[in-house]
Amino acid sequence: MPDSSSAATSIGRSLRRDFTHPADHNASSDLEEADAFQRHAADLLNDLLTPDLLSLAWTSRLLDSFLLCLEQFRALLFGSGAAAAARPPLDRLVADFFERAVKALDLCNAVRDGLDLVRQWRNHLAIAARVLASDAALGEAQIRRARKALTDLTILMLDDNRDGGVVGQRNRSFGRANKEPRPQQGQGHHRRTSSGGSSSGSGSTNHLRSLSWSVSRAWSAARQLQAIGGGLPVPRPSDIAATGGLASAVYTMSAVLFIVAWALVAAIPCQDRGLQAHFSVPRNFPWSGPVITLYERILEESKRKDRKNSYGLLKEIHQIELCSRHLMEITDTADFPLPEDKDVEVREAAQDLVLVCGSLKDGIDPLERQVREMFHRIVRTRTEILDCLSKPNGTE
């Protein structure tokens, strides 16, 4: 897979050139560029309405689309000079967008933790695949070892789904450098939160999960999604006119932020990952149709009988469940030595395990890098624009 960060950066440079205003820019050209941004967002969202919805490959394209939209949004805001974002009414709308965007940082951490869970599940699956897909004869020892790996996988998935498992105990964050020294157990420390606050503590309990911005045990992905998407301020015609269409661009980016965050939580195991966050948009925007369709399709997928209690709607997670269940069923009453037809059936099922393991091995790490890039791009863009908003009277 090509590096999505490099691709997004390259396209971003092109977008900045396309969206840089000439010295004699006017409100009409501003409006045209804002409309072009909305059409581009609509095209990116339309491209996501494909049959491989919620697969690893699709989720990767989802994040690419977000990064491209955010880069174009940044170029649009600064195209006519940074001062524009600091003037009413745009300053209020931009500030609201970044209040929502900062909540997505915790979601990035939670999604990364969820990907790590899937990686652990794959390790158990790989043990069974390695045993059953070998060229050696399948005897009772091999079947027992594979069944034990699948039983451990099932227990791990059930525990993680019921209690949040290690999701609620992660100590890592995209916001901290890996080379930062870790305090000794019992030593005082501070833990920053995504809202800029800090908390302190010490002792062995705090040592388990206090060294980063990771989510706490009480954190809820469902509540976070509601905070991101609830009550999005639809721009008034007067605001659109006063900002040369930039107010519509901010609203567009807010809607894209929500649908991407919501889809990530739908796909990847997250703590308290309910998907019932209320979300609606007017239908008069170019991107409204694909956003609503995407939302409805994912919601419909979550309501399927075989997916209602799923750990995540990612297709590869569903394949883990199906493959492991099928192998447990066909080996439940196996006689040894295995009859030829049973041996063939087990080996065919093992090949399905091999394919799922390969797909996860190839897709998890690149996807985690994209989530990390999403985190850092939000932080960087927010910092740049808040610096602008802090200057008096929108001066540059």
Automatic annotation (TrEMBL):
Primary location group: membrane
Transmembrane stretches, start-end: 246-268
Region (Disordered): 166-208
GO cellular component terms given for this protein: membrane
Compartment(s) of residence: Membrane
Recorded topology in the membrane: Single-pass membrane protein
A Pfam family it matches: ROH1-like
Keyword Repressor: no
Claim: Manganese is one of the keywords in the record: no
This protein's UniProt keywords: Membrane, Transmembrane, Transmembrane helix
Biased composition (Low complexity): 194-208
The family this protein is said to belong to: Belongs to the ROH1 family.
Protein name: Uncharacterized protein
Lineage of source species: Eukaryota, Viridiplantae, Streptophyta, Embryophyta, Tracheophyta
